[in-house]
Amino acid sequence: MFEAQAICGPKWLQFPTPTRNCTPKPRIGFPTGISNPNVLICQNPIHFPPHKNIKSQTPFAVNASSASAAVGSAEYIEEAATKEKFQTSLSLPGCSSSLTLLGTGYREKVFAIIGVKVYAAGLYVNQSVLNSLNAWKGRSTAEIQEDSSLFNSIFLSPSEKSVQIVLFRDVDGKTFWDALNDAISPRIKSPTPVDESALSTFRSIFQGQPLKKGTFIFLTWPDPSKMLVSISSDGLPSGVDAEIKSENVAFALFDVFFGDTPVSFSLKASVAKGLESILK
Question: Chalcone isomerase domain location, by residue (predicted)?
């Protein structure tokens, strides 16, 4: 929203009365008692109404490092580093209601000291998730970001949450899985047969599958006991590609993004900023 601005004629511009056979030269004098001559003093300001037709950002979709944009009839948030656009709300297979965007970020890998952006990511949650976060009202972004118990509460909530990944470059499925597995495995100290079976199912989704730039990958937690995986190279997915039934694997993957050592610091920071705004 734009505030009304005042425009006035400066009181201290003085022009002498012209005399015959001479060209008047304006003399500019500054009022006495003012140390800064750049300050204008207005007696009768003219107020202009606020600019209309400005679309405000929804209060729940907050991102510290992103700008909102209207594309067609849908609302989007643009991730600043990759310029990828995320819908502020969407409906996903396996979810009982629409989910709302809480923050965005990106994943970067370093090759030969050069940072290469791999994908952009956004966290969506069912708004009822916020009901379990009253204990963190009034906390700063830094306090929220450093408090692992808050993110654990989000995971343990029985309501849906989902991470959307948008690939920023082509990558083969095996490479993508290997990167995920390298992050997940250290978080499961003693995998059970159920965990091993879940990891095998997870791996089979990506093996031999080329993943093109712009592909959507959704990792959705309907509840803490399982995770749904949906992959689409043509817009939002229409179905679920796999169901991972292991709470250990489900939590390990959530911790990959929102634990103490996240793979995307920008995503966690953006989500923390969004939560600060919501939990005021």
Answer: 85-276
